[in-house]
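Purpose: get a first structural picture of the assembly so the mutagenesis plan has something to point at.
Setup: two entries, given in the order below. No constraints added.
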Amino acid sequence: MDLRFRPEYEAFREEVRAFLNEHWTDEDRASAPPTNPRGMSMGASIRTDERATAFRIKAIERGYLYRHVPRRYGGGEQPFDPLKSAIIHEEFRKAQAPAELIGQGPSMLVPTLLEHGTEAQKQRFIRDTLLGTITWCQGYSEPNAGSDLASLRTRAECVGDFFVVTGHKIWTSNADTADWMFALVRTEPEAPKHEGISYLLIDMKSPGITVRPLRQMTGEADFNEVFFDNVRVPVENLVGKRGQGWIVSRSTLKHERNLIGGSLLSERTLEGAIFLAKALSLRGRPAIEDPLIRNRLVELETKVLANKYHGYRLLTMQARGEEAGLAGLVTKLYGTTLGYDVARLAMDILADRGMLAPGEAEAPAMGMFVTAYMWSLGVLIAGGTANIQRNVIAERGLGLPRDPAVARR
Amino acid sequence: MDFGLSQDQVLFQDTLRRFLAEQCPTARVRAIMESDSGHDAELWARLADLGVPGLIVPAAYGGAGLELLDLALAAQELGYACTPGPFLATSLFTLALLQAGSEEQKSHWLPRLVRGEAIGSLALAEAEAQWDPRHVTTRFETGKLQGEKTFVPYANVADAMVVVARGDSGPAFFLVQRGAPGMDVRDLQVVDMTRRVQHVRFQNTPAKPLPGPSAAVQRVLDAGCVLVAADAFGGCQRCLEMSVNYAKTREQFGQVIGAFQAVKHQLANMACELEPALSFLWYAAHAFDHLPDQAERHAAMVKPLMTDLFDRFTRDSIELHGGIGFTWEFDLHLWFRRAVFDRAFLGDASYHRSRAAELAGW
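Result (structure tokens, whole complex):
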């Protein structure tokens, strides 16, 4: 066991730093923070303005970004080395430099296309997706197909050179701004449910698509509903074979789980709770001096650190070429339940001030902790609810049998 | 960056697991726990042959010169097998000598400990749940100890023990030999039948100070917290394994109970807590030897983390087994009892969490 990086990796770190010093300057960092179409400021790492894109292209050429993607599709094409990836990630974050874009396109669609796409699809979409010049949304969930996603009913009938799509998708982040959607649709209504699904790429400018904002419990609308009314999709936009969309989509879902499980979010929420406990008083003394609050803060900090060290362990397993198995399956459930517990502790530190709504002038930190408390429920659900995660851990991790009632359907 | 066990460590752990499965199945555990001393000299000799007591002792004294992580792996396996005996007691004694012993004390005791020829212990706790070495009242004056210690593990068989007492400059270790005058050892009946615990009273008992720095006391307790946590982790692992196996074979309502979501989710929740906790345990053990700034706080965090889990795992496992889990014949209560010891020994969860808060400067 050694938490230090070996000398050749430290040399690599120096090389990355030198590159960043040269190509991402103070002036770049200070350049006007761009906003997304909703007017929100975007983090430096996901900037997609011209300056950021020019830098990202250089970083890809050096092999620092999108290392798993071949050069002919616009990637950095480097041998698998999770330790180098971790160093790049760390150094780019410290330098506040544009890094690999995250989100549905680069993290979910690209791996799927690499595995199942046609040459033409790869050429057409991957490079632009990696640079953020084509953006994506994910058309999976439907009002009656949530945890039981394979029961989805949006139909795509093959008519000549087109699929004609009719149906209703829900919980679609960025559907209002995305250029394209990757969607699961039912192409063979007579086939058993998992075998009748296909994976389609749908141009969001196609006639017949209506996008409506979906207002979530926080009061804001960060999701959408998407309605399809006889939307024509060329057959060349089918990924994988007809009726095999379920298998094609599996690689995508796996990537989504990894995205949400990361430890950074719970680390930040905990820092926020500690900050609150120092800043706010409870019955005449700082909350941080309350024995119960101290106890709970330590208890949760322990779990936040466990989550972080677990990341080191998974990284090591990856670097050694070992299967993560059970250790890898628990990350989403652990991280999201922990996020909920930390957010709830922040609410308890707020005590009666937790009743104040975001926007109320007297609410500590503009009420952001209340919003975080609500969002901690959102991430428990997104990408497979906590109960679905428990099924996955029990069945794939512990080898317990599937529920016979579920297996039959 | 390599946060995982080495091949040697994995091999050692496997060897110990197989050894205990063969030599110390629960039938033998029960025989040892029903014996007078609660200590099986032959088993201890075999563990010494495998190098267990000498893992962290430098080669100069006959040991393997390894780190706390290696000793924690042994603790984990003993917890997995619910092995009775003076492992924890002797490890604490050995750690005290390593951290604070004089050359003479070390060269006298360490080789004997390594060979399994000597058993040691640590006397720390005092009345009213006092495990904080800064607040002990036992005194060392003019070469003699005065005071009362409780929850001293295996004082009945220990050839010597280190006693945490107030000397001229704060709390320190004082070495007392077996049968020293004015020492009164009284058995306590405890819930965990795989550990023997005594109450020890000192009246003008001659003792020899361990000359090391006062900070050595906390260092030893830090290591102790990691070892208890490792024992608890091994116990958790065993409980989860037994429960998963039971859920795969026990049938009710015409199917194995492991197909019911209520059962699956209970087991999934256990697995979900256990995996990241193992990562924390490794980090805390590694920190003891390599990250001095983080060692004490991580020790204060890992002990309540793991022992709270152990409590929950034993409870959930017994519940999941239904009626059979509540019988004397079925083994689960052995771990349930062990969890009671692990949670309280060296101080309860709130004590350690409040220390961790202090150490953060809150």
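The two ends of chain B are 31 Å apart (CA to CA).
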